[in-house]
Amino acid sequence: xxxxxxxxxxxxxxxxxxxxxxxxxxxxxxxxxxxxxxxxxxxxxxxxxxxxxxxxxxxxxxxxxxxxxxxxxxxxxxxxxxxxxxxxxxxxxxxxxxxxxxxxxxxxxxxxxxxxxxxxxxxxxxxxxxxxxxxxxxxxxxxxxxxxxxxxxxxxxxxxxxxxxxxxxxxxxxxxxxxxxxxxxxxxxxxxxxxxxxxxxxxxxxxxxxxxxxxxxxxxxxxxxxxxxxxxxxxxxxxxxxxxxxxxxxxxxxxxxxxxxxxxxxxxxxxxxxxxxxxxxxxxxxxxxxxxxxxxxxxxxxxxxxxxxxxxxx
Length: 314
What we know:
CATH architecture of the largest domain: Up-down Bundle
Helix content: 55-70%
Number of helices: 9
Number of domains: 2
Low-confidence stretches: none
Order of helices and strands: EHHHHHHHEEHEH
Radius of gyration: 26 Å
CATH superfamily of the largest domain: Cation efflux protein transmembrane domain
Strand content: 5-15%
CATH topology of the largest domain: Alpha-lytic protease prodomain-like
Mean pLDDT: 81
CATH class of the largest domain: Mainly Alpha
Strand order of the largest sheet: 1-4-3-2
């Protein structure tokens, strides 16, 4: 017994191609931004601009990781992976989080070294501000585009990478403040701003790790009471408990126990369970697979359901 969407493979393939297209576009823009900031940072001697440029390089690296993870995640289910390869996308998003953590370490380390050994004033010119403002505009556009695509396609990679790119915007804003302070005669502002930016990047890494952890630890994807409400609306269902959901945001697996009159024929109970499985899949578009276990609604089962309802589990 069990219900699985028949069109899931073609839908997943189309989604994978769409996510891949977004990542290729973002990769090209990230490389452009990184070259601009890193090149002028080296030319002007601004440690904050150089750190920002390296951070943008990490953005491009995360895109490559995302494309690799997506290629693995798009493979169909097989004998060794009956639930498919979707979690490879989550592993890739976790790798992006690791890249963020490395970026935070590098930016913070560079800033601290500059503060300890003394600061050499950077050569801040109008070109410095043009480069930074231009890259901020590009990164802001990339963040909005990628986050919207990630939510539309339910892609953890795109959402994680959008957070990565948004952290680059924060970095750039901090760099601009540092450049202004340097022009006003405070050269120490350059490494100080870089250090503060490192904290922002580290926070973004934690957010990405948290999201990936929800999938890898099989956190609840749909509130059990919401699923139980759909199940109990099916004619013939007398109770529902032990509702469990897991998986990716777009590929959710559901299993539950459905209680029916113990005196009805097995065929009738089986038909009710099949109706329940279809009802759950239709009520929640993100559900990929549903398995309903049939139980007789006796005193013991009624007590089980009542206990879960009192605990707020269904």
